[in-house]
Amino acid sequence: MSKDHLKIKVPATSANLGAGFDVFGIALETPYDIIEIEKSECTKIVMLGRDSRCVPTDPQRNIAGIIASIMKIPVKITIHRNIPLSSGLGSSAAPAAGVAFAINEMFALGNSREELVRIAAQGEKATSGAAHADNVAPAIYGGFVIVHQDKIISLYPENIGIVAVHPEIIVRTRQARAILPKKLSLEDISFNTGNAASMVVGMMKNDIRLIGESMANRVIEEIRSNLIKGYREVKQSAIQAGASGVTISGSGPTLIAVCRMDERDKIAIAMMRAFSEKQVKSEAFITTIGKGISVIG
Amino acid sequence: MSKDHLKIKVPATSANLGAGFDVFGIALETPYDIIEIEKSECTKIVMLGRDSRCVPTDPQRNIAGIIASIMKIPVKITIHRNIPLSSGLGSSAAPAAGVAFAINEMFALGNSREELVRIAAQGEKATSGAAHADNVAPAIYGGFVIVHQDKIISLYPENIGIVAVHPEIIVRTRQARAILPKKLSLEDISFNTGNAASMVVGMMKNDIRLIGESMANRVIEEIRSNLIKGYREVKQSAIQAGASGVTISGSGPTLIAVCRMDERDKIAIAMMRAFSEKQVKSEAFITTIGKGISVIG
After folding, report:
1. Do A18 and A59 reside in the same domain of the chain?
2. What ipTM does the predicted assembly reach?
3. pLDDT at A220 over 60
4. What is the pLDDT of residue B26?
5. Which among B124, B155, B186 is the end of a domain?
6. For residue B149, what is the DSSP state?
7. Same domain as B151, residue B14
């Protein structure tokens, strides 16, 4: 028996984690969007909350509508937005993953989580041009995910403190990708591979220090950091305040720090202050690696 | 009280494992060299066993002698060789790691394992031109290692079947490195990073299938495979016989297959037969991921 409405909570996500460019992602406990879907003759979209006026409600131009169209099921979709737009925190992945998950659940379609990731990634492709699943996969699986070809591996580290600081800077994903070099040297690749491998060990052992130390990424992070005013100072201030590592969340401009749970507040304050000293306003999310989409009604 | 002689067993090692170029390495249970050291006025080297006539005994030209010289301690070194020369199984790393370990032990120098890796890697650099520690580190630590900058992470998977088939083909490490491209594309890098990350999960979970599937490496393996006559056929025959993955050991020409312990014999036969059909003689080592250097007398 399928329901006629469903309410879910969809987490923000952070892709790359430095070393795992286009491969790693984590789900954050906060912020999150609330998405409601209801049976309907045709797909309609209602946007509420943060930045909602900046997002088109035309179903053909809205990622949530595109997902309903891919799944060939019309629904009324109400999105209570909390994840800041263009922040590097998966603000388009959340509705993509959420609507795919919710339609599958409400109509008992029986798609596996892997299939839902594929559907959601198609929606991401339609809006951003790239079908990377490193945000939609952690949104659906929760925890830390390795996205590799058609395979997704998920791990569930606990008590990993995350501080995500979102500065008021505009970084477009396309631009952040366009400035990257086309190729990297074998030496830089080995460095990044070593960090990616160490990161996985850190996630499996709940080792905050190892996770943080493994966040460094040669070339890609260095180049992208130029798009974020204050990057160097904010990173340094987070490390000085106790963070074990800092990296750009996705293509930015949000920076995430990894730390002990009890050091999050102190680190958030230090990072916001460092942005402020560069005349950049910012907001901080005090969070942790969380679970994936959950049904709340 | 330091002893006046010491006898150790030093394992063969396999670097790269496909996805972890210059980063991953494993210790093999077999083959292994036996190394004896004795106090002496000046460094002398005695080579016994396999290929021993091909290795110089002049201490300044022999890697074991070079290590003694780096550590500034003269010793008489007797090496009973079993690891085939220029095979991709760490035949120079074994005496480098072994002598560093043995001198440290016999003279109670108190070097950490990380320091011993650094010393042994210096010896590798003196003879091969490159200071990669992806063979000396697994020789010293045992298990599966991630070698990253000055940090070594070791994991100890159990019951991972390894078949190492060494064909009578000459591949020089320098040549195998010289043919590599200087750079890789971001897409190929993400593929390899995904495999490297998956490999680590496989090693932590003793997941033979995941380890095998994660061995694929784009570009580097494809290019190096051209130096190994029969590569494609041998790989295919191993997979057909039940191996979950096959890759080039170090810079080759040995190929290693990962499989269940009870399928090793069958896979070894299939691989040797495939080489034989290409008129290439080969020998197989039926082994597993083993421990590092051990003192036996």
Report:
1. yes
2. 0.91
3. yes
4. 98
5. B155
6. T
7. yes
Among B22, B182, B186, beta carbon nearest to A180: B186
Considering only CB atoms, A189 lies closest to which of B153, B184, B198, namely: B184
The Cα A125–Cα B129 span in angstroms is 46
- Active site annotation includes A254: no
Q: Among A155, A186, A205, which residue terminates a domain?
A: A155
Is residue A175 located within the same domain as residue A239? yes
Query: Is A105 designated active site?
Result: no
- pLDDT tens, chain B, 297 aa long: 467 899 999 999 999 999 899 999 999 999 999 999 999 999 999 999 998 888 899 999 999 999 999 999 999 999 999 999 999 999 999 999 999 999 999 999 999 999 999 999 998 888 776 768 999 999 999 999 999 888 899 999 999 999 999 999 988 877 888 888 889 998 999 999 999 999 999 999 999 999 999 999 888 888 999 999 999 999 999 999 999 999 999 999 999 999 999 999 999 999 999 999 999 999 999 999 999 999 999
Answer yes or no: is B217 within a domain.
Answer: yes
Sign of CA dihedral A199, A204, A205, A206: positive
Catalytic residue among B13, B78, B173, B287: B173
User: What domain range is B142 assigned to?
Assistant: 5-155
Give the up-direction half-sphere exposure of residue B255: CA atoms within 13 A in the CB hemisphere.
35
Element (H, E) at A221: helix A220-225
B240 min Cα distance to partner chain A (Å): 22
For residue A203, what is the DSSP state?
H
Dihedral pair phi/psi, residue B291, rounded to 5°: -85, 175
Please answer whether residues B24 and B117 qualify as being in contact, where contact means their C-beta atoms are separated by less than 8 angstroms: no
Same structural domain, A139 and A218:
no
pTM: 0.93
Q: Cα(B51)–Cα(A197) distance, rounded to whole angstroms? A: 36
Q: What is the spatial distance between Cα B238 and Cα B230, in angstroms, rounded to a whole number?
A: 12
Question: Does B123 share its domain with B202?
Answer: no
In a domain, B294, yes or no: no
Q: Is A293 in contact with A28 (CB distance < 8 Å)? A: no
